[in-house]
Amino acid sequence: MSGTESSDYTQRLARLESSGIKRLLPTQAPYRWNLKRLALGRVLDVGCGIGRNLLNCGPESVGVDHNATSVATCRERGLTAYTPDELARAEDCGPGSFDSLLCAHVLEHMDEELGNSILAQYLPLVKPGGSVVLICPQEAGYKTDATHVRFVDFDGLRAHAEKAGLTVERTYSFPFARSVGKAFPYNEFILVARTPAA
Fold it and tell me: What sections of the sequence does the record tag as coiled-coil (predicted)?
């Protein structure tokens, strides 16, 4: 996770959120729609950053991030977010207390072993039979961030799901067809899975 723990990284996320065409057009609208149609209920947003996705999750949802500055930014936005140590102490965030886990634009920042470890750490907080959504950027998006260390495609997401004991329900490219991801930096690989039922 080299470089993602600094306040500079938080500032970069904030700049990107309102730069260029994003100042003029509702570029996040398709991604908001996609999250809402998944009907994820109370979400644990792992690697929540400054809350871009958390803003579009259910009102009782919670973010966790290792960057304390990003967590503070989420709180300034009225969101509930914790560092890992704070989450471990939060009374309403124990085992099985979330309907789903979202891990968006996180796994590409770490090696496979650490990615598996992060998922293993937080999956017990999701109720049996709950949803898990893993999202990573496609080629053009991967190249836009120097803190990306590993390209994670559909096969990579499935490998993480298998290691975590999840049942994959579907994978899809969003918002455009897979071929667009080589040129369009905001195309994503998305995997939707379920935790084992009780």
Answer: none
